[in-house]
Amino acid sequence: MALNLVSPAEIKALSFLDSTKSNHSHKLSVSVGYNLKRKDHRVVFGKNIRCLAQGPPPAWPGRAIPESGRKTWDGPKPISIVGSTGSIGTQTLDIVAENPDKFRVVALAAGSNVTLLADQVKTFKPQLVAVRNESLVDELKEALADVEPKPEIIPGEQGVIEVARHPDAVTVVTGIVGCAGLKPTVAAIEAGKDIALANKETLIAGGPFVLPLAHKHNIKILPADSEHSAIFQCIQGLPEGALRRIILTASGGAFRDWPVDKLKDVKVADALKHPNWNMGKKITVDSATLFNKGLEVIEAHYLYGAGYDDIEIVIHPQSIIHSMVETQDSSVLAQLGWPDMRLPILYTMSWPDRIYCSEVTWPRLDLCKLGSLTFKAPDNVKYPSMDLAYAAGRAGGTMTGVLSAANEKAVEMFIDEKIKYLDIFKVVELTCDQHQKELVTSPSLEEIIHYDLWARKYAASLQESSRASPVLA
């Protein structure tokens, strides 16, 4: 038996459970006399909980100005890649292959795709290779038997960490998914490496710990996500205090044209039909729920120091404007381009330089061919994820990581048809509500990882509990 919402209209009144009345019955909490407003995201976790502590220093305080004298290498820029066989890793290597005079690979780390990793080693000849799945080391060694010179191979998590802090690397591309990317990223920061950031958990879960560490070691966190790269590009050279507002654009996902009352009938196949492009299952569902954009709101806060009242979401179906910023004088700056992750990845690797790209492999944007760009406000009833994300961001500390982990588990359960589509929001809300009892505002790395695991386990328990005792129906 899956969790059941009374109706889609209940989503409009989502608020976290009143912790003083929680009886662990896993019922949806509905706030009374509360009106949600698009610009006033004031959903709270229980009673009297607002922003509990001043946040960590942002990676970029509303402006991006390169420091002089940071270049410390000769010839092609040496990089290491954590997650080399994933989407981010393979696209990064495409960039390296096209620009061998600009970049060279010194270390690669992958999870379990030994065949692809071996091909990458043969092509890019790194000095160090890691495979997280230790049982596959012998298979990797066999695949590299004819390679000369042979790279050093270090298995397991320690190997991934060594790749991240390789002494020759200047920049580390973090393409590994989930909290598994936190320890390698921390190791890279402590070793003085700039981070080309494609791992969301680094800031969403780890921001309160990672950002002070980055400032301590004077390293740069450069966003490889297309929306945050767009913001980063728009704030280049802004004077101090010039940033007024961040506008994150969203495609709207699979259900942007669906009426709310049809969402109760959503099937997995429906959620996986993205109107603009083909992506992995998890990110496609996140696009449908708009949780991806809610998580990006939290990232934008950590990256650029904007208050949550000054970060907005706009539905932009064409996905050509990747995000915008408004300056104090009301000018709006936007970054445009075809949806292609290689451009933001390239910019994180080359910043502050701009590298020429061939029209053959990098199609240029033709606005006349495009025709028109349209925008509309997101529907809070259709996308309750926005209010959940703003609430988690305002609570701060470990709450943002719990939100992300609970969503990841809920999406997994939905894809496995263990819960319904609307239950994704409910599982996340209930998990965040439960966590406020143990919220840590200034967590250690160990606490961040602990509550990530806790959130996944608790989210899974909600589905299991619903089998034994039906929820509100």
UniProtKB/TrEMBL annotation:
<feature type="domain" description="DXP reductoisomerase C-terminal">
    <location>
        <begin position="336"/>
        <end position="458"/>
    </location>
</feature>
<dbReference type="GO" id="GO:0009507">
    <property type="term" value="C:chloroplast"/>
</dbReference>
<dbReference type="InterPro" id="IPR013644">
    <property type="entry name" value="DXP_reductoisomerase_C"/>
</dbReference>
<dbReference type="Pfam" id="PF08436">
    <property type="entry name" value="DXP_redisom_C"/>
</dbReference>
<keyword id="KW-0479">Metal-binding</keyword>
<keyword id="KW-0934">Plastid</keyword>
<protein>
    <recommendedName>
        <fullName>1-deoxy-D-xylulose-5-phosphate reductoisomerase</fullName>
        <ecNumber>1.1.1.267</ecNumber>
    </recommendedName>
</protein>
<keyword id="KW-0521">NADP</keyword>
<dbReference type="GO" id="GO:0070402">
    <property type="term" value="F:NADPH binding"/>
</dbReference>
<feature type="domain" description="1-deoxy-D-xylulose 5-phosphate reductoisomerase C-terminal">
    <location>
        <begin position="221"/>
        <end position="304"/>
    </location>
</feature>
<keyword id="KW-0464">Manganese</keyword>
<dbReference type="InterPro" id="IPR036169">
    <property type="entry name" value="DXPR_C_sf"/>
</dbReference>
<keyword id="KW-0150">Chloroplast</keyword>
<dbReference type="InterPro" id="IPR026877">
    <property type="entry name" value="DXPR_C"/>
</dbReference>
<dbReference type="InterPro" id="IPR036291">
    <property type="entry name" value="NAD(P)-bd_dom_sf"/>
</dbReference>
<keyword id="KW-0560">Oxidoreductase</keyword>
<comment type="pathway">
    <text>Isoprenoid biosynthesis; isopentenyl diphosphate biosynthesis via DXP pathway; isopentenyl diphosphate from 1-deoxy-D-xylulose 5-phosphate: step 1/6.</text>
</comment>
<dbReference type="GO" id="GO:0051484">
    <property type="term" value="P:isopentenyl diphosphate biosynthetic process, methylerythritol 4-phosphate pathway involved in terpenoid biosynthetic process"/>
</dbReference>
<comment type="function">
    <text>Enzyme of the plastid non-mevalonate pathway for isoprenoid biosynthesis that catalyzes the NADPH-dependent rearrangement and reduction of 1-deoxy-D-xylulose-5-phosphate (DXP) to 2-C-methyl-D-erythritol 4-phosphate (MEP). Required for chloroplast development.</text>
</comment>
<dbReference type="InterPro" id="IPR003821">
    <property type="entry name" value="DXP_reductoisomerase"/>
</dbReference>
<dbReference type="Pfam" id="PF13288">
    <property type="entry name" value="DXPR_C"/>
</dbReference>
<dbReference type="Pfam" id="PF02670">
    <property type="entry name" value="DXP_reductoisom"/>
</dbReference>
<dbReference type="GO" id="GO:0030604">
    <property type="term" value="F:1-deoxy-D-xylulose-5-phosphate reductoisomerase activity"/>
</dbReference>
<keyword id="KW-0414">Isoprene biosynthesis</keyword>
<comment type="similarity">
    <text>Belongs to the DXR family.</text>
</comment>
<dbReference type="InterPro" id="IPR013512">
    <property type="entry name" value="DXP_reductoisomerase_N"/>
</dbReference>
<keyword id="KW-0809">Transit peptide</keyword>
<dbReference type="GO" id="GO:0030145">
    <property type="term" value="F:manganese ion binding"/>
</dbReference>
<feature type="domain" description="1-deoxy-D-xylulose 5-phosphate reductoisomerase N-terminal">
    <location>
        <begin position="79"/>
        <end position="207"/>
    </location>
</feature>
